[in-house]
Design a protein that fits this description.
125 residues, 22% helix
């Protein structure tokens, strides 16, 4: 994994607000965006709880490229782009289960391995 700039990590850890948006595409290239609320950071990247990912998971199995958009309380947006892999055991899965409320199934953890980061049109990584 590439080294994520400290400003982005600080924005995520200290200033992130509300839901994030996960964007995928169908095999035909049709975009799909969903709100995600159970998200976290680990040493390998950023993870999303796969609670009800039916269409999203199918998209990612056909094309693992995705982006995760988050906004800070200062209204600054960051877009993390990379590839998703699914984990049903191990440290990433356990980290997701630790923050996923019991009322949700937590089928797997979708791990985004970051390849590039943007804030607006500015490429940060």
């Amino acid at each position: 994994m590439k080294t994520i700039p400290e400003t982005v990590l600080k924005a995520w850890d200290e200033h992130r607000e509300g839901f994030c948006i996960l964007t995928t595409a169908t095999p035909e290239g049709i975009p799909n965006a969903i709100y995600v609320g159970i998200v976290g950071r680990c040493k390998d990247g950023f993870f999303i709880a796969n609670n009800y990912f039916n269409k999203t998971k199918a998209n990612l199995e056909a094309n693992p490229h995705a982006s995760l958009l988050f906004i800070t309380e200062e209204r600054k947006a960051y877009q993390l782009k990379g590839k998703i892999s699914f984990h049903t055991e191990g440290s990433v899965y356990e980290a997701m289960k630790a923050i996923n409320p019991d009322k949700y199934p937590g089928h797997s953890a979708a791990l985004l391995t970051v390849e590039s980061i943007y804030s607006g049109a500015e490429k940060l990584m």
